[in-house]
């Protein structure tokens, strides 16, 4: 499969690149500038694409079969992820390319019949995480109302951090996944596995999914 990854040098994007290459896919990395080329592994094709320019993104998507956007916005500018996602969706609509949007857990309903989502529960998130969660919710709402692009929205567990590639996890849709101890977590490595799995299987067209241990 010919796959283009946006945000290919980031925490999640770099792991998606590693996972996709290991499976033998033809991977293109879309980055901001040539300085980022040195961060990319061997065997990947780099391309410069301005994430704020749908036309440039569409040009980068031409001749690809699938796109994964792992774009993030920097601290203090969390809300910019909405505009970046809009550009990705516009480009995907122009090219007819299926795209997986790497999002957040904010939209997920808490388990055990709670009326709250991860974002709406006043006691769930640390205060410093709330701006990111609000931006992720706005990002999800944008995707949910998009009708022209063929998107999939991927939510990690509440805790997403570097770890091991176990290759074993659960998949859900709209409810936060927790383990027997009540923890909601997934390694970035296994999240990347789930993203490439979805790229290959297309189980969630114009829908959202989540993964967790």
UniProtKB/TrEMBL annotation:
Domain NAD(P)-binding intervals: 7-198
Molecular function terms, GO-annotated: oxidoreductase activity, acting on the CH-NH group of donors, NAD or NADP as acceptor
InterPro entries per UniProt: NAD(P)-bd_dom, NAD(P)-bd_dom_sf, Polyketide_Oxido-like
Domain of life: Bacteria
Entry-linked Pfam families: NAD_binding_10 (PF13460)
Name of this chain's protein: NAD(P)-binding domain-containing protein
């Amino acid at each position: 499969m010919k796959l283009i990854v946006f945000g290919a040098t980031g925490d999640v994007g770099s792991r998606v690149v590693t996972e996709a290459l290991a499976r033998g896919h033809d991977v293109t990395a879309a980055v901001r500038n040539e300085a980022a080329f040195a961060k990319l592994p061997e065997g990947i094709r780099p391309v410069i694409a301005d994430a704020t320019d749908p036309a440039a993104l569409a040009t980068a998507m031409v001749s690809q079969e699938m796109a994964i956007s792992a774009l993030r916005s920097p601290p203090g500018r969390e809300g910019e992820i909405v505009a970046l996602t809009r550009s990705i969706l516009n480009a995907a609509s122009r090219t007819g390319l299926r795209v997986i949007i790497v999002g957040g857990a904010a939209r997920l309903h808490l388990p055990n019949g709670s009326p709250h989502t991860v974002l709406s529960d006043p006691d769930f998130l640390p205060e410093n995480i709330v701006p990111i969660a609000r931006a992720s919710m706005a990002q999800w709402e944008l995707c949910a109302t998009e009708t022209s692009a063929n998107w999939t929205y991927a939510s990690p567990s509440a805790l997403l951090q570097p770890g091991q590639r176990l290759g074993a996890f659960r998949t859900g849709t709209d409810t936060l996944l927790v383990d027997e101890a009540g923890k909601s977590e997934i390694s970035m490595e296994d999240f990347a596995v789930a993203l490439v799995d979805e790229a290959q299987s297309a189980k969630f067209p114009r829908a959202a999914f989540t993964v967790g241990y």
